[in-house]
Amino acid sequence: MAVTDTQNPLLGETTCSSLLQKLQQIWDEVGESDEERDRMLLQIEKECLDVYKRKVEQAAKSRAQLLQALSDSKVELSSLSSALGEKSFVGIPEEASGTIKEQLAAIAPALEQLWEQKEERVKEFSDVQSQIQKICGEIAGSLNLSDHPPVVDETDLSLKKFDEYQAHLQELQKEKSDRLHKVLEFVSTVHDLCAVLGMDFFSTVTEVHPSLNDSTGVQSKSISNDTLSRLAKTVLALKEDKKQRLHKLQELATQLIDLWNLMDTPAEERRLFDHVTCNISSSVDEVTVPGALALDLIEQAEVEVERLDQLKASRMKEIAFKKQAELEEIFARAHIEIDPVAAREKIMTLIDSGDIEPTELLADMDNQIANAKEESLSRKDILDKVEKWMSACEEESWLEDYNRDENRYNASRGAHLNLKRAEKARILVNKIPALVDTLVAKTRTWEEERGLSFTYDGVPLLAMLDEYAMLRQEREEEKRRMKESKKFQELQSTEQETIFGSKPSPARPAGTKKVVGPRANGGGSNGTPSRRLSLNQNGSRSASAVKDGRRDSARLAAPVNYVAISKEDTASHVSGTDPVPASP
Question: pTM of the entire structure?
Answer without folding.
Answer: 0.48
